[in-house]
Amino acid sequence: MSIDSASAREARPRAAKPKKPPIKKSEATRARILDAAAYVFRRKGYAHARLSDIAKKARTQTSSIYYYFESREAIVSEVLRIANEKTASYVNAAISEQPVGATARERITAAIHGHFRIVLSDNDYTSAHMRIFDQIPEKLQEHFLKVLDQNAGIWRDLFDAARAEGAIAPDVDLSVLRLLLLGMMNWSIEWFKPGRMSVDQIADQAARLFFDGAGPPRAPAP
Fold first, then answer.
1. Distance of alpha carbon 38 from alpha carbon 125, whole angstroms
2. Which residues contact residue 91 at a Cβ distance below 8 angstroms, ignoring those fewer than 6 apart?
3. 25-44 and 124-132 helices cross at what angle (nearest 10)?
4. Residue 195 pLDDT
5. Dist CA 76 CA 131 (whole Å)
6. What is the pLDDT of residues 60-101, one digit of tens each?
7. 3, CA 20 to 30 Å: which among 16, 100, 140, 206?
8. 6 Cβ contact list (under 8 Å, min separation 6)
């Protein structure tokens, strides 16, 4: 290649990276309303959260909310949907960080870390979900129980693999085990205080208890 042709190639303007389309004002307002709703539901619960509270936090008029959501139930449904998506995203991301060939125990430990990270992240959506789920209308609750069951599929797959590898005893009921683990992790939002232990340290403790119990290490069989 000649010097001239090389210089010409270097002088050629590089293609500009495509810019992300700007967020529309309506989309930004809708997101702001949802953020405000998660904030209010987390702190006031379902019954005591008013649309006026949400509008004030979102810096908009109460009447304007109906442009984006037909009812308070529609807002709640979207808040819960986002909360579930965030939880699934954290868990799946933690699992995906494991190397190829990781054991089921390693993948479950990673999933435990991912779940604790979102539950204890001080995220309004996740915290609101924890607080109001038992308070929402029955029809809405039934819908999200199905969503929760779908999201639990990743845990069922992990537990099945762990049993196949011998990491979970054959006489342990996997459904009970899954519910106990998720209940334990979700309840941590009620007692966790930053400072004494980090989120990952708590996750390590939970994984150790899950697989090995609280007793001292067993001596190897002779």
1. 5
2. 111, 114, 115, 118, 154
3. 50
4. 87
5. 12
6. 999 999 999 999 999 999 999 999 999 999 999 999 999 999
7. 16
8. none
Is residue 65 within 8 A of residue 106, CB to CB? The reply is no
Write out the two tokens for 24: 């529309």
Distance CA 155, CA 141 (A): 21
d(CA 125, CA 78): 10
Contacts of 30 (CB under 8 A, 6+ apart): 68
DSSP string, 140-204: HHHHHHHHHHHHTHHHHHHHHHHHHTTSS-TTS-HHHHHHHHHHHHHHHHHH--TTSS-HHHHHH
Domain annotation for the chain: domains and CATH numbers: 72-212 (1.10.357.10)
DSSP 8-state code for residue 12: S
In this predicted structure, what is the pLDDT of residue 22? 56
3-state secondary structure of 93: helix
The answer for residues whose C-beta is within 8 angstroms of residue 76's C-beta and 6 or more apart is 37, 41, 46, 132, 136, 140
Q: How many residues does the chain have?
A: 222
For the record, the structure tokens of 72 come out as 């308070």
Tokens of 118: 């979102």
Taking 70 as the pLDDT cut, the residues of the chain under it are: 1-23, 217-222
| Alpha-carbon gap, residue 220 to 222, rounded angstroms | 6
Two tokens at 171? 């006489």
Structure tokens at 182: 């998720």
